[in-house]
Design brief:
Length: 371
């Protein structure tokens, strides 16, 4: 295999290896895919203000998330159906995350169960739920899922709140996407909800439409707190208004996310929304970023704008497809190495030394009119 020098190179290699339906499912965004491109391009408009002549002979990237120590502020986002990418799927991802000393979030639509992932050994793991799937027409189902996650030692619930309906992903419609017949959504297998039927458009969209309760709201976040003592990360917040509500309804943290640009097209990039959320949070809870991270420089930029850490999704899927556990481990190591280098060249020896003064954004370059 050719020498891979950065995270983005895995996508081209994965495209060569994966069936078109699977690659398109992982890679595509909603409708015109404007937000998909913007999630990356917005990072490129943020520039650095490095400090010089700082002793950077020792750099500490360790941090704490929800009371758990991790080796770096780079974690793994929930990504569905990973066995489409590699036979070991989520199990390989879990091993790679544990080896890197960081946290992994398991999708409720995983092709490995919470128990199977836990069986690979110790690790800091969160379990992801869809707010629309919290009832699945039956609240006992979500109670069972949460209890299973608790019993398996998961440390938090990542509640995805931007999916009352599935976004229009035209690649999936063209490909008539469905879960390959040898795979099931393992967390729902015992509930007879683990398979998808073939349809004339997207099998996933049809599956979601048949199972999701569109009437759910913030009050259901409160209900979730009555059935679990696990901290709840609200994933999908992009505005100050929803930041206030997340705090009001007891969130333990916020993940600024637009679902990898797979839901509503023409929303801003998550890095463009980050400061608004951070300002409103006022330090009352940690704010994380998900979407578009491909370089250690991206991680640094997010931290400078107030994020407590970032989550990566597609880089995990593409590296998993190319080289299994070793691929995911290499992605995490490359991002770590790049972040360490960026910190050194910016004059920062610890994460707390990364500040807003280290970056210049579009808003900084807009001249203020005179009064």
């Amino acid at each position: 295999m050719e020498l891979i020098t950065n995270v983005s190179e895995y996508e081209r290699l994965a495209k060569e290896r994966l069936p078109k339906m699977v690659y398109d499912y992982y890679a595509s965004g909603a409708e015109d895919q404007w937000t998909l491109k913007e999630n990356r391009e917005a990072f490129s408009r943020i520039l650095f203000r490095p400090r010089i002549l700082v002793d950077v002979s020792h750099i500490d990237m360790a941090t704490n998330v929800l009371g758990f120590n991790i080796s770096m502020p780079i974690m793994i986002a929930p990504s569905a159906m990973q066995k489409m990418a590699h036979p070991e799927g989520e199990l390989a991802t879990a091993r790679a995350a544990a080896a890197a000393g960081t946290a992994m979030t398991l999708s409720s639509w995983a092709t490995s169960s919470v128990e199977e992932v836990n069986s690979v050994g110790p690790g800091i793991r969160f379990f992801q739920l869809y707010v629309g799937v919290m009832v699945y027409k039956d609240r006992n189902i979500v109670k069972q899922l949460v209890k299973r996650a608790e019993m398996a030692g998961y440390k938090a619930i990542a509640l995805t709140v931007d999916t009352p309906r599935l976004g229009r992903r035209e690649a999936d419609i063209k490909n008539r996407f469905t879960l390959p017949p040898h795979l099931v959504l393992k967390n729902f297998e015992a509930l007879d909800l683990g398979t998808m039927d073939k349809t004339n458009d997207s099998g996933l969209a049809s599956y979601v439409a048949s199972q999701v309760d569109r009437s759910l709201s913030w009050k259901d976040v409160k209900w979730l707190q009555t059935i679990t003592s696990l901290p709840i990360l609200v994933k999908g917040v992009v505005t100050a208004e929803d930041t206030r509500l997340a705090i009001e309804y007891g969130a333990a943290g916020i993940i600024v996310s637009n679902h990898g640009a797979r839901q509503l097209d023409y929303v801003p990039a998550t890095i463009s929304c980050l400061e608004e959320v951070v300002r409103e949070a006022k330090g009352r809870l940690p704010v994380f970023l998900d979407g578009g991270v491909r370089r250690g420089t991206d991680v640094f930029k997010a931290l400078a704008l107030g994020a407590s850490g970032v989550f990566i999704g597609r880089p995990v899927l593409f590296s998993l497809a190319v080289d299994g556990q070793a691929g995911v481990r290499k992605v995490l190591q490359m991002l770590r190495d790049e972040l360490e280098l960026t910190m050194a060249l910016s004059g920062c020896t610890s994460l707390r030394e990364i500040t807003r003064s280290h970056v210049i954004t579009d808003s900084d370059r807009i001249p203020r009119s005179r009064l």
